[in-house]
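Continuing from the previous page of notes. For each protein in this section, the sequence appears first, followed by its structure tokens. Read the first protein now.
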Amino acid sequence: MKKWKMIALALLIGGAGHSQSNTPSEETLEIFKQQIQGYYHYLVTPEVKNFSCKISSGIYIDFIRDKADSSYYYPLKYIQTKEDNRYYVLQPLPTLNDSLRREALGRVQNLKNLFNGLLTDLQKFYFQHPLASPPAEAAITFASDTVSISFSSRENEQTISMDETYTRGGQLGRITWKLGDQQVVIYPSYREARGKWICTGWNNQVYQGGQITSGMAARVEYVWHTDRFLPLRIDIITQQQKTLGEEVATGGYVLFLKEFMFNEDITEITQKATSKVPPRE
């Protein structure tokens, strides 16, 4: 049996200097949310009604460089509203013959699928505040140096159990998703910048029946623009073992984001978006 090699994970749950004054008996989920509300950098802050950005990938850019005009590198515009409605708008494509145009559209769909695969993590670690997802009825447990939040959700008539672990200082350290005998464990990493935490990436491992079957490491590069950090590049490394004992397949890809816009009039855009590229699968 070949040795299973998985991406090394580091659990970074040390605090960044924030402190809490309440005792466990006084604290609730709502109080904890209020305490750490200002500890994170994230996009959908209270004044943001919607945001958008153009997206591409290293694979798509290489294709355009080889086959077409290099000014058409970003084929999709992603739009998200405060209410978590999501849309994709197809951008102009270069002039191509029928065969290459079909290939280009197929690659655009692949790009959308790649981005969709990261959306849950991007929502949790950057687009929204980490505590935006737990419902009000979530159970919260305070220990001496950690805070655990547990809740469940229904998806495709199945129940997913979720547990999130924070430091007492409010930094998210681990997320665990459980569905049947499958479990996903995610470890985000943060650094302190301009007085708040910014997520620099995350690692995850997928378990099936107690055995690791796949893993992923994501690293994010940002630029500070006006009053917020904007993600420009996401590097992904993946590892997967389809059958226990088989050699692990390693892959990787890069996503690029640019031209972030906030609070646009998107009425017409969103109507057109649903007819061009489906907003969700």
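Done with the first. The second protein uses the same format. Note its length before scrolling.
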Amino acid sequence: MRATVGRVCAAAGAELLAEPAGPTSSTRAPLADTELVDVHHAVRGRVRPGTVLVGRPEDTGLWDRAAELGGCTVAVLPDAAGWLADLLCARSTGGPGPGGTGHVVGVLGAVGGAGASTLACWLADRAAQEERTAVLVDADREGCGIDVLLGLEDRDGLRWPDLQRIAGTVHAEQLWPALARAGRLRWLSWDRSRPDGAPAPYAPVLEALRRAAELVVVDLGRAGPAAADTAVLCDEVLVPAPRTVRGMLAARWAADLLAGVPARLVPAGLNVADVDDALAAAATGLPVAGSVRFCGGVPEAAETGRLLEAGRSRRLGRDVAGLLSAVGALR
């Protein structure tokens, strides 16, 4: 692996400083632009922001290990050699990379119907309304497009199928103006075509959006292994869950699935099981970021293209603003 990484570094014009395996600490080279960790030598504990875990296609548990290390980016070599070289080149010349100014927040539904997609839309929209540079990213491949939920599927702009054949770095200055938009809000959605099995370039695209926006909100869909793989690309994840026994059990499972990714709970809807925030936190092991109250008009609003309008109401808007403050998007 060291020889493979060495060739990538040489192609990027970067110097490889090899260190023996050991605890991640301040003893590691403080001036390194990027820390690369071989999956076979990774130790327990969190790693620096922007760390890349490297491995080969035959390395099982690569994504699980990345989650245990705090959600670092993964490069599977040699397939990702071009992408990794571009990343090293950008960082060595001052490019912001994953540690750039943008904050990436994932929204993962504990159960189906928990309102993850709706909450993701409202978070991105409220940030845009507050004059933050915000983008909504649809990472729920089988959801037929978050643009439909927005009621804006007729807007021109890039969709994920347009980006599936890209290789290497995605340039923020090219991606940003090509996104669909309404006012200050931009989004990147899946469409209604049948998934062809090709992997989505979530890592390079999210990195580019991080460089372009102050806030990137990622709709991860319902909790599951595929969603967990994408969640490791986020700085933190919000987990909306109904205030029910089943909702809390599902949120506990989602917390285990997320492993080392920083996550917080968002109790949502009617409190039919007498689950207050303290009980929810104790039952799930997740701290509570805030809650979203029940509003009976939301399903109709979603079906009639008025979802964003519903989220801007005074009561729901206060809940959404509170969550944005909790993740540091509003000061």
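What the second structure shows: The first strand starts at residue 36 and ends at 38. Residues 116-129 form the longest helix (14 residues). We return to this in next week's lecture.
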